[in-house]
């Protein structure tokens, strides 16, 4: 786990300048295992196993006596030193957007005198947190260190909102699971001036009164292509790193080659690698990384390096059926001579919910905790720098609520193809005949519903979510349920009435607050992307392989921006994501793709989830025998255990909701049993986050 942390306070609260982390009463505090980037009066540290090239500091030349002006960029950034210097000068004049326009995934921190600016990303994969501390404000790219710093308790209300409405920013607000620790929204920057804080957005907000100018589809797709190519190139041109020294190779093992032995020891392969699932997103990244033209030092300007082949990893789940076509597509793509194909086969040991007792404590809870072992086995066979296609669905696909945006712009004819595709997905039945009319009515209702009315309606319906929760069996049902300003999450049906009532109050309060309201489809799409990016961040922590870096270019700022320029009429068409990525590859000179490329494969993951739940049922029942969530008043243990048994027997219950409950309970147990703190020094906090190691009872919370 890697993060950066710093703070800003009034000058009078510090002693002698130069004493790093100097506290007001003469004591010091600093993070454990930190690397100081710059010192008092507003220090900044990098914590964790950062590579040397992942930390870049640029200082602008200023006259003697002028305020210090410098920029720290942490992560993978494709900008040159000169471009960073130009961005620093632009940020000094207030143009914060320049700090987020470079290729790659990174966090930028600017210091201009006593003014500190920390820019978050657009997707939410690199968030920024802050909390009041020492007559000022402390900030970090992880919430747990700040919670340790202020000895925070759990915010049970936020956990309730996270389970009840995970894709509703109005319910989550700017909170975190730790009381007193706040998060800045995606697309915003945190500005600190001698302890005072300001949160400002750096992206333009579209008007509701006038429809935005539509970008030409061809130009928009070319923009996505250029952004993806630059994102991949930023990773390929970065310095290569060999994995750190791992346990020695035990020698020949029957049935295992060198690669399998290395994976068993937990060491990634040196070089560049990528997932190759047979799907459109991972295949696009693998093919771009393997054949990207114009890289220096490569044979004939092609390939990932001079004589180097890209390692393509395909995961073969032996416990599920129905992935034969996907595996065949991966095999055909891997026939490319620039790819070295490795198939990782696993059985029940890699199912969801496997090895729940192991795993590190992550910054926050997320549904990906129950599949961490599944991903870790795949990533252990990967490379030191490994591409993953996560985020492509949320970035490129159209959220169903975007149909309402089309109606607001009087583009009804663009609804024909997506509505017809939903009707075909229902199959030949009487119900399918009414799908087009039902979807059109729901989209028109959403288009005519104001932001405030939509939230108030959702707040009034939420307390009954544990009694009237529908079963979303078909794509049409899921699309109809998504055509609202806010809807309960899959875990809401198992929350207590008290927890749902508190989240309902949050929605009612948000409805009357002034807000920069976006179009319903755009707002819902951004919320879904933020939710997925947060889950991806936690997955990287839970399935972390030492010395390995996971790269998700679809979550990069420039790729998200390019995708947002895609016309809505292009997004809502069936198979839009595969068509866009096919044109991206064609623009990069890659045309030969196997038949069926881009076919969705969500059904197999659902099947794996049900098989894994059935196999791990005894462990899950034990997990919810005396759950901390029940102690906090969020669930009734008996109800959840009954649901687990019913789901294992094949009852059509939302498996995503059960995964969220299990992940949150698992995270709570790891949190309250942890040892130590993130800080050291004479002024270090005496207690870690969740002081006393217990979950506060629900009755102790103030309404």
Instruction: Provide the residue-averaged pLDDT.
Output: 86
Largest sheet: 6 strands, antiparallel
Helicity level, as a percent range?
A: 25-40%
Name the strands of the widest sheet in spatial order. 3-4-1-10-9-11
Query: What is the molecular shape?
Result: globular
Classify the secondary structure makeup into a structural class. alpha+beta
Distance between the termini: 35 Å
Strand content: 5-15%
Rg from alpha-carbon coordinates = 25 Å
| Secondary structure tally, helices | 26
Number of strands: 19
Weakly predicted, low-confidence segments: 12-19, 294-304, 699-703
What oligomeric state do the depicted chains represent?
single chain
Description:
It is a single chain. The chain is of the alpha+beta class. The chain has 26 helices and 19 strands. It has a six-stranded antiparallel beta sheet with strand order 3-4-1-10-9-11, covered by helices on one side. The chain has a six-stranded antiparallel beta sheet with strand order 5-6-7-8-12-13. Strands 16-15-14-17-18 form a five-stranded parallel beta sheet, with helices on both faces. The longest helix has 23 residues, at 520-542. The protein is globular, with a radius of gyration of 25 Å. It starts with a strand and ends in a 23-residue tail after the last strand. Residues 12-19, 294-304 and 699-703 have low confidence and may be disordered.
């Amino acid at each position: 786990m890697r993060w950066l942390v710093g703070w800003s306070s009034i000058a009078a609260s510090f002693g002698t300048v130069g004493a790093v982390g100097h506290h007001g009463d003469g004591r010091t505090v600093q993070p454990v295992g930190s690397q100081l980037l710059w010192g008092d009066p507003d220090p900044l540290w990098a914590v964790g196993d950062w590579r040397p090239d992942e930390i870049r500091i640029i200082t602008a030349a200023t006259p003697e006596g002028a305020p210090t002006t410098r920029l720290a960029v942490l992560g993978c950034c494709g900008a040159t030193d000169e471009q960073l210097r130009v961005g620093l000068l632009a940020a000094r004049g207030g143009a914060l957007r320049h700090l987020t326009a470079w290729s790659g995934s990174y966090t930028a921190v600017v210091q201009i005198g006593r003014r500190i600016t920390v820019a978050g990303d657009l997707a939410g994969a690199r968030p920024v947190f802050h909390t009041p501390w020492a007559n000022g404000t402390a900030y970090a790219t992880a919430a747990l260190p700040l919670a340790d710093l202020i000895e925070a308790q759990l915010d049970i209300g936020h956990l309730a909102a996270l389970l009840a409405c995970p894709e509703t920013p109005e319910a989550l607000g700017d909170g975190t699971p730790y009381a007193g620790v706040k998060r800045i929204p995606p697309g915003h920057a945190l500005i600190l001036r001698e302890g005072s804080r300001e949160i400002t957005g750096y992206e333009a907000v579209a008007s509701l009164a006038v429809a935005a100018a539509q970008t030409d589809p061809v130009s928009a797709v070319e923009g996505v292509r250029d952004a993806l190519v630059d994102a991949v190139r930023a990773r390929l041109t970065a310095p290569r790193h060999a994995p750190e020294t791992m346990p020695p190779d035990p020698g020949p093992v029957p049935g295992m080659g060198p690669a399998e032995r290395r994976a068993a020891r937990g060491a990634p392969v040196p070089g560049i690698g990528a997932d190759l699932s047979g799907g459109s997103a991972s295949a696009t990244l693998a093919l771009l990384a393997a054949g990207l033209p114009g890289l220096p030092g490569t044979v004939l300007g092609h390939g990932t390096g001079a004589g180097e082949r890209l390692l393509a990893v395909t995961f073969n789940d032996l416990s599920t059926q129905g992935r034969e076509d996907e595996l065949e597509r991966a095999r055909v793509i891997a026939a490319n001579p620039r790819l070295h194909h490795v198939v990782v086969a696993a059985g029940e040991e890699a199912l969801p919910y496997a090895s729940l007792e192991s795993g590190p404590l992550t910054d926050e809870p997320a549904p990906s905790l129950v599949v961490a072992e599944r991903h870790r086995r795949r990533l252990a066979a990967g490379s030191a720098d490994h591409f993953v296609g996560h985020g492509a669905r949320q970035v490129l696909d159209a959220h169903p609520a975007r149909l309402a945006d089309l109606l607001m712009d009087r583009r009804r004819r663009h609804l024909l193809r997506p509505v017809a595709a939903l009707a075909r997905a229902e199959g030949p039945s009487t119900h399918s005949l009414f799908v087009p009319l039902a979807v059109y009515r729901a989209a028109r209702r959403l288009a005519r519903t104001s932001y405030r009315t939509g939230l108030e309606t959702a707040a009034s319906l939420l307390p009954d979510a544990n009694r009237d929760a529908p079963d979303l069996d078909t794509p049409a049902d899921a699309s109809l349920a998504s055509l609202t300003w806010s809807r309960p999450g899959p875990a809401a049906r198992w929350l207590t009435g008290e927890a749902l009532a508190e989240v309902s109050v949050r929605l009612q309060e948000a409805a009357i607050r002034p807000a920069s309201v976006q179009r319903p489809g755009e707002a819902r799409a951004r919320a879904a992307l933020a939710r997925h990016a947060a889950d991806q961040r936690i997955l990287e922590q839970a399935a972390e392989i030492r010395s390995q870096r996971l790269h998700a270019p679809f979550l990069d700022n420039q790729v998200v921006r390019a995708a947002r320029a895609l016309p809505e009429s292009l997004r809502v068409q069936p198979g839009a994501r595969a068509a866009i990525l096919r044109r991206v590859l064609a623009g990069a000179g890659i045309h030969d793709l196997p038949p069926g490329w881009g076919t969705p494969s969500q059904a197999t993951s659902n099947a794996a989830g049900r098989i894994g739940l059935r196999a791990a049922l005894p462990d899950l029942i034990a997990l919810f025998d005396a759950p901390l969530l029940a102690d906090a008043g969020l669930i009734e243990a008996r109800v959840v255990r009954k649901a687990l048994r019913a789901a294992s027997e094949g009852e059509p219950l939302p498996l995503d909701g059960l995964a969220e409950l299990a992940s949150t309970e698992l995270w709570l147990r790891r949190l309250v049993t942890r040892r130590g703190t993130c800080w050291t020094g004479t002024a270090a906090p005496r207690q870690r986050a969740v002081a006393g190691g217990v979950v506060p009872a629900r009755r102790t919370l103030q309404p």
